[in-house]
Amino acid sequence: METVLSGIRSTGNLHLGNYLGAVQNFVKMQYDNNCYFFIADYHSLTTHPTPGDLHKSVRQVLVEYLAAGIDPEKSTLYVQSDVPEIAELYLLLNMNAYLGELERTTSFKDKARKQPENINAGLLTYPVLMAADIVIHHADKVPVGKDQEQNLEMARKFARRFNNMYNVEYFKEPVAYNFGKELVKIPGLDGTGKMGKSEGNGIFLADEEAVIRKKIMRAVTDAGPTEPNSVMPEVIANLFTIMDIVSTPDTVKFFKEKYASCEIRYGDLKKQLAEDVCKLIAPINQRIKEIDSDNEYLSKVAKQGAEKARESAAKTVKEVREIIGFRKFY
Ligand code: TYM
Q: Whose CA is nearest to atom 21 of ligand 1?
């Protein structure tokens, strides 16, 4: 049995990119793997949410994880800050992480550009905290979207470095995982880059059908192809990227042929895409509403998850302390 671990930062509601990149197919793995799903609230502090927002976002991700199909009886579903052992392992791994390599990571450079007034040390050491999240449960596979590939490389590097430094074969090297396929990058609806929580270009699991339809109908397109079989510009290819995942192969084929023969009507394409996205999201949206009102259930799930996660985390930290050479005097 393999250990699978997936995390989502608590900085807002889950969007279609989070769901398709790190949740949808992976909930199926719960039944024959040892799965951990967690809410990365320590990580969200790198952008300084207010206390009220922090708690609200953690709760929302918990609700949406459950609505998306995580079974807390099969998987360990927990909040990162409920497991302080992660913070200790992060501190220990920080001693073997070097300024140069941290400064060179794409996500650090991106964030530093986006929030020049708040380039905190947490942003710099973000990949170290991620590595701690992963290796604390000895994860083999980490379902992530394409944007996290470099962070996974760093996690492997830190695991290997720890083993080399102490001359042990203790940590495994985790791999970024998507069923043997390429990691996915779900594009935003504005034609630029990936779908993100803060980019204003997302479809959210908590969005009502009418909102989803409106967002998709407004997605950026172009004037349409003028030559048969022309190469698709990015804005159009983006809509097909989403369609490839949410629609049937026949539907995709139909619209690709229409594009190739210059007969495509973007209005029809978007209507179909909206239909298929709604079909995917509607049942999750319904469950979000049901679970959201059940405080008792949420509290039970979080408590049970924290206990299970702490057990595994405490064992790792104890062993790491021994490897490093900490000994008690009492
Ligand atoms: P976060 O919260 O930005 O995103 C959570 C997961 O969703 C994936 N994702 C996407 N996949 C495809 N297309 C997109 N447009 C898209 N946007 C987001 C992300 O790749 C990710 O898998 N640092 C992480 C959270 C984290 C974590 C971890 C993940 C903390 N510790 C340990 C795995 C293991 C993050 O900010 O993800």
A: 144
